[in-house]
Amino acid sequence: ISSNSLGSAGFWLLGPGAALGSSYGPTNTRLRCHLGLQTPPLCELVVGGEPQCWSEGHCLLIDDSFLHTVSHKGPPDAGPRVILSVDVWHPNVAAAERQALDFMFSPDL
Question: Residue 97 and residue 26: Cα distance in Å, rounded?
């Protein structure tokens, strides 16, 4: 999703001992694709109460509109968890709805 402010892409790092508190994504119109680039042991993502794990070289597709938490409980020498995150349209969002969302959430507004 590059045509409105609901989508983003970027590299996300999380150091050993770090945790991100519980949160909800801003919308259920997108899914997040996480490509594991560096995934030390004891890194966990819990989405809607279901534990998920990253794997290097593999994608994990999540709906971040559900309550989710992220943690890296590895030792200090484990290094950071690194992922590439890319937002994509949820498959249940119709083309007309996408067009309306692009208009409502234009990055130029």
Answer: 16
